[in-house]
Design a protein that fits this description.
- With 83 residues, the protein is mostly helical.
- The protein contains three helices and no strands.
């Protein structure tokens, strides 16, 4: 889900951060925020990979994927013949 923040709100937030921490702490805060975002992104990618691996190992999920693929192929064949 995306946060929709207007330009005015961004300027206000930057001004508030600048007033609270000062110009000398701002680069350090930006680096820390960047590292935190990178760690969260990596953790999210790892979690997605684990879920995908577990789902691929489950025979029920595997048979469901095969059934969906067969239905998809059938629909594509039918649409191809109608053209």
């Amino acid at each position: 889900m995306f946060l929709f923040i207007s330009t005015g709100e961004v300027v206000f937030l930057l001004f508030a951060v600048l007033m609270l921490f000062g110009t000398d702490k701002l680069p350090e805060i930006a680096r820390m925020a960047g590292r935190t975002i990178k760690m969260v992104r990596n953790a999210s990618n790892d979690l997605k990979a684990e879920i995908t691996k577990a789902a691929d190992a489950d025979p029920t999920v595997k048979s469901a994927k095969e059934s969906i693929q067969e239905i998809k192929d059938s629909i594509e064949d039918t649409v191809g013949r109608l053209k």
